[in-house]
Structure formats: C-alpha cells, structure tokens
Amino acid sequence: LYSLIFGRLRISPEDETTFYSNAEGYWKDIPPTVDGMLGGYGSISSIDISGSKAFLLKLIGEGEGKTGTSCALDCGAGIGRISKRLLLPLFNTVDLVDVTQEFLDKAKTYLGNEGKRVGNFFCTGLQEFVPENGRYDVIWIQWVIGHLTDNHLVDFLERCRKALRPKGLIVIKDNVAYEGVVPDEVDSSICRDLEILQSLVSQAGLRIIHQEQQINFPKEIYHVHMLALR
C-alpha cells in the first residue's frame, strides 16, 4: 500500500485515501471496550494510566514552566479511557476527538457523572481536525500518531501548537520502533523509531522539554515513550 524510502513514509494521494479509510474500517469493527481500545491488552490500562499520571504531574500546576489545569484535549480518545482515568481528575474541562462515532457515543455513558465536564465531542480524523486556537493547557495524543502520514502529523502538531494556552504543552505517548518505520497492515498504521519522531516534532516547530519511557509493560510489545512538547 505504501512505500518506505530511507525509513520515511512516502505515500501517494490514492494510497493515502486507502490508508485512512482502512484504519477507519478497522476501528469500526472493534468493540467499544477498554480491551478493544488497547488491542486486547486491557490488563495494562492501570499501569499505563499510572505512568502517564506520574509524567503529567511533573508538568502541571504551579511553578516555572508548568502548565495550567483548565482545559485538556484527548486525541484519538476512543471511549474516553484516558479522559476518565487521567485527564478529568486533573483538568476542569476535557474535549475528546476520535474518528469513530460509536466510541464517542459510548464515552458519554462510560465517563459517568464526570462526563458533565466534557466540553466537546469531536468526531473526525486528526488529519482534518483543527483545534481551537489558544484553548488547551495540555493536548494529549496517545496511540494514534501511527494513523497519520508524516506530513499530516507535522501539520497536526503545528495546529496543536497554535491551540495551546500560554505555557501549554502537547504530550505524545506512543509505540516506538527499534529502527525505521514498521507498517501494520492489520489496523493500517505505522510505528516510527524515536529519531524519526523527534525529527517530525522539530519540523512542526516544537521542542521536547521532557521525555520518559513507560515502564512495566509486557516485554512482547513495543517500547512506549512519552514526550512533552512546546
């Protein structure tokens, strides 16, 4: 479907359309559950959230360089697993964006009473999503950048940069390949190595201010890194 040249994703316009439509088709067949969101690894959810919370608490609140807790955006939110366990407990308002309407519909019940503090449910792919300028203290992007081509990822990060409040942060948490780019034909995604990801971040005019690897995940899955950007 797409060619990898010098470790970078090169994709024609026709193949790009297929790349996105195949991914949408994949997620439409996935049950709206925590296990579904995590590709059968529902058991790692608590470890994942704990790692994310420890990372995020270093970056929010009072103090030099820290960001506020007014509003966060959950990108590729699914049924709201991260919003429920991580973002809503820390932020006054959270917006969710996901390409699958069924997941967002499920989120409205899954989030329970705290769902009243959700500002918006946006149903769209991130390649087309334009977040409101100056709205967010934190934009959380987890396990979804593999569904964006290199150019669309750079463009999206540039739009996210404009959507930050003063001192706001973008956090990417995602799988990292050992070397180069690894395609996954099953869910129509790719996994980039850290060097490529860092290069795309830089192209978007962002710099990494803090970076950590998630610990205590199963050995058979990709390493997962968290990058805070501004």
Description:
The chain is of the alpha/beta class and 230 residues long. The chain has a single domain (3-229), classed as 3-Layer(aba) Sandwich (Rossmann fold), CATH 3.40.50.150. It is built from 7 helices and 11 strands. The chain has helices spanning 13-28, 34-37, 45-57, 81-87, 101-110, 150-162, 194-203, and strands at residues 3-5, 8-10, 71-75, 93-98, 118-123, 136-142, 164-176, 181-184, 189-192, 208-213, 223-229. The strands form 3 sheets. It has a 7-stranded mixed sheet with strand order 5-4-3-6-7-11-10, sandwiched between helices. Strand 1 (3-5) and strand 2 form a beta hairpin. Helix 3 (45-57) crosses helix 4 (81-87). The mean pLDDT is 94.
What's the layout of helices and strands?
Elements: E1 3-5, E2 8-10, H1 13-28, H2 34-37, H3 45-57, E3 71-75, H4 81-87, E4 93-98, H5 101-110, E5 118-123, E6 136-142, H6 150-162, E7 164-176, E8 181-184, E9 189-192, H7 194-203, E10 208-213, E11 223-229
Parallel strand pairs: 3-4, 3-6, 4-5, 6-7
Antiparallel strand pairs: 1-2, 7-11, 8-9, 10-11
Helix pairs in contact: 3-4
**What percent strand?**
25-35%
CATH class label: Alpha Beta
Count all strands and give the number.
Answer: 11
Shape summary:
globular
CATH architecture: 3-Layer(aba) Sandwich
Q: CATH homologous superfamily?
A: Vaccinia Virus protein VP39
SSE topology string: EEHHHEHEHEEHEEEHEE
Helix content: 25-40%
Numbering strands along the chain, what is their spatial order in the largest sheet?
5-4-3-6-7-11-10
